[in-house]
Write a structure and sequence with these properties.
Length: 508
C-alpha cells in the first residue's frame, strides 16, 4: 500500500506527471497499477500472477529454472486446484515415523548380460553362471591348470535372461518409493565397457506409440513410476531433472541447449563449477534444470544428452565409456497442511553411469589422451579408494580427491540410500575384468550409510528461496544483456510495448 507518506525514493520513479489517483490495467497475466504520489510522481507497480498459486503440479507449459544446488528449489507451475484431502499423503507421514533410522549397507546387485550375436557366432566360451535364487554368481577360473569355480554372493543377482522390467521392479522400484518419501537415493552402474551399464540405466529407444518399450532402462521407468504414483495420489508435485557428464575432471551440462553465440570450442569446453556451500554440501553451479511432464519427455532429454557427448574414439571405446554421467531427478511434493503451515517434502534420485572400469592402458590412450585417461582414472580410482577407506573404517576418507566423489559424497557413507549395479560379461575373454568387477562390487557391500529423510520445507522457506533464485536470474539476465543484447519472450515484449504506449498516453 502506498500513500503520500510512502518512503520510496523519488529516484525510482519513471516519469512525472499529474494523473488521476490510480489506474488499473488488468491483463491475463499481470496487473499494472499506476499510483500517483507526492502529487506529481507516478509509481508503476507490476504484479505478475498466475491463476492458481497453490498448485505445484506441472501444466505442460515447458521448461523452467536454471541452476542446481544442494537443496534444490522447486518450481511452482500452476494448475487448477485438485481434490482434497489427500489421504495418501497422510500415509507418508506415518511411514516416516515408523522408519528405521539405523545404518544400512549399500545394496549391491550383479547383472550379467547375454552373449552378443557376434560372440555367439564365434562360439565364445562362457565363464559366468548366475543363480538368481541363491543370489550367487560363479566364475570359472583356471588355477594351476585346474578349472576352479569362484563364488560371489550379492544382494541380488540377475542372469543373462533377466528383463529390464524385472530388474526395475525388484531392485529399483522400492528405491524410487524411498525418494517419494523424502530420501535421497543413488544408483551406480559399475563395470567394464560393453557390459550393459548404459543399457541398464537408459535402455532401448522409445516406442512410437509413447508407451515404454520392454527395453526401457532405469531412468525412464523411474520417471514413470514417479508420475504414476503421484497422479494416483492426486498429489501436488513438481519433478525436474539435471544431466551432467564428468569428463576429464570437468563437468559438462548435457541438457544445455547449444549457445550459438559461442564458438564450438568454447561451447564444448564451458566448464561448470562444483561449489561448496560452507555446510559440507556440494552443489553444481550453472547446471540447467529441466522440468519433465511425462515419462516420454525423458527420451528427448536423453537424446539431447547423448548428442552432446563427444565421441573421440580410442582403440577400445568412446568418450561415453570414459566419462561418468549423472542423471538426477528431484521431486517436490506438497503435503496436506498441518495447521496453518504448508510443508513440502522433497527427495532426490541420482542415476550414475560410471566410466568403464577396465584398465585404462588397454584403451590405447596416448599423447593428448594420456592425461584424459589419467584424469578419468582419478575419479574412478578415488571412488575405489573412498570405498576402501569406508570399508576399513580408516579415519580419512579421500572424498575431496576427485570431482565424482565430491559430488556424490553423501551417497558413500552419508545419509543417502545407495545401490550399486555391477555389470559383467559372460565371455571368457573378459575373465580378468569380470573378476576385478566382482571383487570391487563385493567389497562395496560392506559400506554402511545412515539414510535420513530430507527436512521438509515450509512454504515460507520455499518462497524465500524462490526470491533468491529470481534475484540470481535477474543477475544472469543483466549479464546476458551486457554481452548479447536483450532477449525476452514474445508475451513479455507485447506487454512491455503496451505499457509503453499506455505511459505515452498518460504523459501526453
Ligand atoms: P556399457 O554402457 O557398459 O559400455 P552398453 O550398455 O552400451 O555397455 O552395452 C553394450 C551392448 O550390449 C549394447 O549394444 C547393449 O544393447 C547390449 N546389452 C547390454 N546388456 C544387455 C542385456 N542385458 N540384454 C541385451 N543386450 C544388452
Ligand atoms: Mg555406456
Amino acid at each position: 500500500q502506498i500513500n503520500s507518506k510512502s518512503p520510496l525514493s523519488p529516484n525510482s520513479i519513471a516519469t512525472e506527471t499529474a494523473i488521476p489517483p490510480a489506474r488499473l490495467k488488468n491483463s491475463r497475466s499481470s496487473i499494472t497499477v499506476l499510483v500517483q504520489y507526492f502529487n506529481h510522481r507516478v509509481l508503476i507497480i507490476r504484479m505478475e500472477y498466475k491463476r492458481s498459486t497453490t498448485s505445484m503440479t506441472p501444466d505442460q507449459s515447458g521448461k523452467v529454472g536454471v541452476g542446481m544446488n544442494a537443496n534444490p528449489l522447486p518450481f511452482l507451475t500452476p494448475r487448477p486446484e485438485r481434490r482434497r484431502p489427500d489421504s495418501r499423503c497422510a500415509d507418508w507421514n506415518s511411514s516416516k515415523a515408523e522408519r528405521d533410522r539405523g545404518e544400512v549397507n549399500i545394496q549391491v546387485l550383479l547383472r550379467c548380460r547375454p552373449l552378443s550375436d557376434e560372440e555367439q557366432k564365434c562360439n565364445v566360451p562362457k565363464v559366468i553362471t548366475c543363480n538368481e535364487h541363491k543370489r550367487e554368481v560363479s566364475i570359472l577360473q583356471n588355477v594351476a591348470n585346474k578349472q576352479v569355480d569362484k563364488i560371489f554372493t550379492f544382494d541380488k543377482v540377475f542372469g543373462p535372461k533377466a528383463q529390464q522390467r524385472s530388474i526395475y521392479d525388484q531392485a529399483i522400484y522400492p528405491i524410487v518409493n524411498e525418494v517419494l518419501e523424502g530420501f535421497n537415493c543413488t544408483v551406480f552402474a559399475y563395470g567394464q565397457t560393453g557390459t550393459g551399464k548404459t543399457y541398464t540405466m537408459e535402455g532401448g529407444m522409445r516406442n512410437k506409440g509413447g508407451e515404454l518399450p520392454a527395453e526401457a532402462g532405469v531412468i525412464p521407468r523411474a520417471v514413470r513410476q514417479i508420475f504414476d504414483t503421484l497422479e494416483a495420489q492426486n498429489a501436488d508435485y513438481s519433478m525436474k531433472v539435471t544431466f551432467l557428464e564428468l569428463y576429464n575432471e570437468e563437468i559438462v551440462d548435457l541438457l544445455t541447449t547449444e549457445d550459438y553465440t559461442r564458438s564450438s570450442d568454447e561451447r564444448q569446453k564451458k566448464p561448470i563449477s562444483l561449489m561448496e556451500d560452507g555446510k559440507g554440501c556440494v552443489f553444481v553451479r550453472g547446471l540447467e534444470e529441466e522440468a519433465v511432464y511425462s515419462a516420454n519427455d525423458i527420451y528427448n532429454l536423453l537424446e539431447r544428452g547423448a548428442a552432446k557427448r563427444r565421441t573421440a574414439d580410442t582403440l577400445l571405446n568412446k568418450r561415453s565409456s570414459r566419462s561418468h554421467s549423472v542423471f538426477t531427478i528431484t521431486v517436490h511434493v506438497k503435503q496436506a497442511a498441518v495447521g496453518s503451515e504448508e510443508l513440502v517434502k522433497y527427495g532426490k534420485l541420482n542415476l550414475v553411469d560410471l566410466a568403464g572400469s577396465e584398465n585404462i592402458s588397454r584403451s590405447g590412450a596416448r599423447d593428448g589422451r594420456a592425461r584424459e585417461a589419467g584424469e578419468i582414472n582419478k575419479s574412478l580410482l578415488t571412488l575405489g579408494r573412498v570405498i576402501n577407506a569406508l570399508v576399513e573404517h580408516s579415519g580419512h576418507v579421500p572424498y575431496r580427491d576427485s570431482k565424482l566423489t565430491r559430488l556424490l559424497r553423501d551417497s558413500l557413507g552419508g545419509k543417502t540410500k545407495t545401490c550399486i549395479i555391477a555389470t559383467v560379461s559372460p565371455s571368457a575373454h573378459c575373465l580378468d575384468e569380470t573378476l576385478s568387477t566382482l571383487d570391487y562390487a563385493h567389497r562395496a557391500k560392506n559400506i554402511k550409510n545412515k539414510p535420513e529423510a530430507n527436512q521438509k520445507m515450509s512454504k515460507a522457506m520455499l518462497l524465500k528461496d524462490m526470491y533468491l533464485e529470481i534475484e540470481k536470474m535477474k543477475q544472469d539476465l543483466r549479464a546476458a544483456r551486457e554481452k548479447n543484447g536483450v532477449y525476452i519472450s514474445h508475451e513479455r515484449y507485447a506487454q512491455e510495448e503496451a505499457e509503453k504506449k499506455y505511459m505515452n498516453f498518460v504523459v501526453k
